[in-house]
TrEMBL record:
Entry superkingdom: Bacteria
The protein's name: Antirestriction protein
UniProt domain Polyvalent protein metallopeptidase: residue ranges: 150-204
Pfam families: ArdcN, MPTase-PolyVal
Residues covered by the N-terminal domain: 4-123
GO molecular function: single-stranded DNA binding
Amino acid sequence: MKTDVYQKVTNKIIADLEKGELSWLKPWSSGNLEGRITKPLRHNGLPYNGINVLMLWGASVEAGYLSRYWMTFRQAKEMGAHVRKGERGNLVVYANTITKKEEQDDGSEEERKIPFMKGYSVFNVDQIEGLPEHYYTKPEPVIDPALRIEHAEDFFGNTGADIRHGGNSAHYANGSDHVQMPAFETFRSSEAYYATFAHELTHNAAFWIMPRGQRIALIRQGCPRDKAA
């Protein structure tokens, strides 16, 4: 049976509670919300309200998004941009009422307001490429970009891995097979950046070099076990 929108929202909140991480209550821990707490924004700059604020705050903290802006796949496309392959949207909801006329026993009609809720997916700007520049948050420099280590840059560049920079999270994404890194300038030192980079690339290597790691990843992506061997 298809899960309704109410249940999806409830499941998300329960999942956060069970993890013991109320990320949707602490947006100030994420880079895009340091300082004054602000609401997530639609593509046109209008703020989200209600449960959507908590849902998108939580998504930003969990994934490390820096931008406050969110939009649908179609809205990004209309601006000549595109959602990166492998990215997944986050649920937001729209609630309203419809008015329905019902015939009474005496033949008269009475209007009744019926509440409804529908859900749809939105993507953070950090998941989208090709948008106008003002949508993208520029991190405040912590270290001088000139402190990059040339031979380390050459080494990582020659690995052949799909390396992406942005957001506030360092991780390897199995589904899209890419290494995600925060901007170099946001690290406390060049050594910290390259140490983190090397760590995330080991996960990429586990998939491509170690047969067991590749098999597990393929199974997680839905490949039948007998074909993932």
